[in-house]
Amino acid sequence: MNPCISIDISKGKSYFQGFAAMNEPATKATPIGHDREGYEKLTATGDELKRRYGVVVYVFEATGIYHKSLQNHLEGRNERYVVLNPLEAAKVRKSKLRSTKTDAKDCASIALAYYTLSSPDHDRKAFLYETLLTMNRHYGHLVQVLRIEKVRFRNLLDIVFPRWDESYPDPYTETSLSLLKQCPHPEKMRSRKEETIARNLEKTTVHRHEVSTNEAQKAKRYAEQAVSGCSEDACEVSLLSESIARIEDETRMIATRLNDMTALVQGNPFYDQLRSVPGIGDNLAVRLIAELGDLTRFESKRQLVAYAGIDPIVYQSGQRTGEHLPITKKGNKTLRTLLYLAVTSNIRGRKANPILDFYNKKRQQANPLAYRAAVIACANKLLRTLFSMHRSGKRFES
Q: pTM value?
């Protein structure tokens, strides 16, 4: 293994230490700040080790966000570096009988993990997948914000426009929101002419004159019978208008983010392979690529299943067989959610395919699995199937 500089990263500062080989420190553990001066001090030590040994590898654990500044600095210098899985590194650290944890000693633990695990250098092409992952997590955040705003919107709608959902079961349609924006209270809807409402709908929606007129008539009929829970000048009226504006903004941002992600995966063969799977559409295919990343980094299906955290817990002791235990959930939570969505969409589609057949088998066996347990079993099977598809380059076979 190559000489390395192990770096224990925390918020705003880190400790680093050079190693010539396993258990052979070349320098002392030294603190640095996450700034230009600190990074220049780190790479100066790296340059010195290069002169001594010919090569050096920088090693640190993935921390979510705190290592990004250091990673960008090393990328700018075209340095070799390894990003360790923190769970695997922790296993090495805790393997000692007496585990003492300090910032300085963590450098030695990280170096030991590097030499023990034989981790490969960070691949430059992984930046594409890191970008996709960041965008997908932001997409998920936007969806969550939109979901919260819709709950608030429905509460205000039931006050200002009681029973509106009887006329418009989906109040988030373009027509519904356009009507609510131009007439933010039933009194205004009653006082406004039908022709005026129809003309406004023609301008703000895709509807033509005839459809817009019909929608205006329906809105007027509602307004004639509606009894609002507040007056025209109540704060709920303005809050409802603000909520509509937020919903429209969030919806546009979500569509933009999804389009950006789709542009990055266009031309990726795995994108087309994923879309051949029943239950996986364009949206889900893009998000799955973002969460799966580069599948070539997994040597086996078991590693990929463990990465998703849907491998079963194994705990065998004495009379306990260790069977029928829950999944570990030590993995990518977002990926598990997407796999669950893919399987449930597949099941609802009822189109004959191996995943649906497997689900029916698990639900109809001598000791049938509960619905959620069967879905998780299918998610495990689906993930293994995706791994094989990626390796073979073949599309999903029904």
A: 0.81
